[in-house]
Amino acid sequence: MPTHPHSHPPVTVVGLGSMGRALAEAFLDAGHPTTVWNRTPAKAAPLVAKGAVHATGIAEAVAASPLVVVCLTTYEDTLAALEPAAAALDGRALVTLNSGSPAGARRMNAWAVEHGARHLDGAVKDVPSAVGSEATLLYYGGDRGVFDEFEATLRVLGGDTVFLGEDPDLAALYEMAVGGTLLPALVGFFQGAAALRARGLDASSMVRFSAKWFEMINSVLPVFAEEIDRRDYSAPGSSVNLFLAGAAGDEEFAREAGLDTGWHEPFQELLRRAVAAGHGEDSIAALTEVLGKE
After folding, report:
1. Where is the domain boundary, 128, 147, 177?
2. Does residue 152 share a domain with residue 60?
3. What is residue 254's DSSP assignment?
């Protein structure tokens, strides 16, 4: 399929959940002719009102544009949606923005290439309302030609747009690696909110302090990353033993506040394993050695 050197190549967006709608709106706002499709047609109505074309079928949607962006929940969902339009993918650029494992990304890529598509897999590292912002991060892995040809179009979705490399599973790899911090951090915040509520205090009263705590965590990540890359944990800012010593205080706090802190146990077990492996006086970053299988 020929390239589209003009500044606003047509785009098709498949999947109109909250993120898919945000992607389509960003393309429309930037002046790209945008075709949309969703299993539930009613979700297309607000976008049509903004100038999008609503394709009545998935094959029609895929055929409408040289660049097809699919934003569904999983790779399996994406494959199921695209299967009826497989023939129309030949020669087109396919960008998948969904959740899933690196293995899922590799299966997706193999299927896309088998049907003649040029595949780029990616991830949006922010909430739907942030799509289109200069600060919003998206990263991609896979077909370098797709990224080079459509970089300006993809950058419409976020100003911090990164190509990770040509391995088709890199975006999924980084998505899983980075995303592992989300649930523990949120559960920690929710636990704090429950403790404050038990004292008759509002959760909103701790937001400023939690944000500062996250800023501190952010500031030490480069230090931990350097320790991990060098595999040298001998100059700890905080040791494994120090974290383990705090467990008793956590238990007393939980009893007083009436909290269920059963989710702490796997973390405490990890600390105990690190101590048993000789890392008690090492940096807390040494937990990487216990978590890895090398």
Report:
1. 177
2. yes
3. H
